[in-house]
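Researcher: Go.
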Amino acid sequence: MENLNQNREPVIQITGLKKQYKLGQIGGGTLTADLQSWWARLRGKEDPNLVIGTDTRLFGTTFMALNGVDLTVYKGEALGIIGRNGAGKSTLLKILSRITAPTEGEIRLRGRVASMLEVGTGFNNEMTGRENIYMNGAILGMTKAEVDSKIDQIIEFSECGDFIDTPVKRYSSGMFVKLAFAVAAHLDSEIMVMDEVLAVGDMKFQQKCLGKMSDVAGQEGRTVLYVSHNMSTIRQLCTRCIVLDKGRVIFSGDVEQAIAIYMDTTDVNVVHYDLRSVGRQTPSAGKRLFLEELRFLEKESSVFSNAETMKIQIRWHVNEPFSGINMKMNIHYRDSSPVGITHPVSLGAAEPGKTYTTVFEFDPSLLGEGQYFFYLDIFERALTNPVCLDKPSTEFHFEVTNEDFTIPEWPAGWGRIHFPPVKIL
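Model: Structure:
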């Protein structure tokens, strides 16, 4: 792989890149609140502007999101970036997109960067789809005539023609993604940066986008950086892959080798997760209800036989009253391919200011042998119209061993569900 790249033109060169963040709330939002907080700390009093239940033990400490990244990306390359949550993937792309600045290190970019880091990045909600296309083109340094020559292709690809003159604040998340991707893929940028954005679109549009990105890299000679937890799309699109772990590049090279190394970074020896300082998957998560910890009970490791029931304990705190709270597990195989979602269960009602402990069970007997992880999703109202209350970005890992199965290793082509035998009638 390195030999193939020796004669190619580098478009991104990163040397010694570091990014440090401070933990805890920074600033109270107004000068008055900041002065109140400073005066309370000076007197050894509790900060009057903190949310009730906030853990202040980590305030003032720092976290290295990136810790010495060296990377060269070449023209026409489709580079996959994979790693566990918190490994530094999104931070790397935000720095490349100039959304945030590095703490240390040097970055050299040769060309314009078109970014899609989340749904609707760079869009103005009050403007129509057509106006946002022209605005994005202007941001990239294109003239109106240049955008005019592309706009029909963009509208056709986005499948939003009927709504192109409607303000984008009325678009669904799927329509947002379709238009944003069409803009990024068709306007003249040398570098495309994509962060897990295709997860919102429908399957047909995802395949359409992957095909377009392959054409952009292979035929048009543009460079694509793609972050995803979906290993099948990484395999389909990328020509090279890097694995990030704790802010460092631990592998760069063949896609299959990278995926194998990424899967080996999972840890099934962890039985207790402190969730008070971890990120959340949505901006509103953890505000009204906060999941503080998760623990696998009666275990020294999270390895379970298929005849063994998993007992899991969670502790959660609420800041307002709830008449009913629901919970479900989103289960994935270790390569991040989805396995299934458990049926929602009720955690009951809750009173404001109280902390609750809940123990629940999960039966892994239908899962094939292998390593898995799940996300925990706590929400309000029915599954058809849920309101997310908390969804930590942590992957809770566990392993299933099929002790009563005669084949020593679960064959990869069999899928992940161990169905019971059919009944002869």
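Model: The mean pLDDT is 83.
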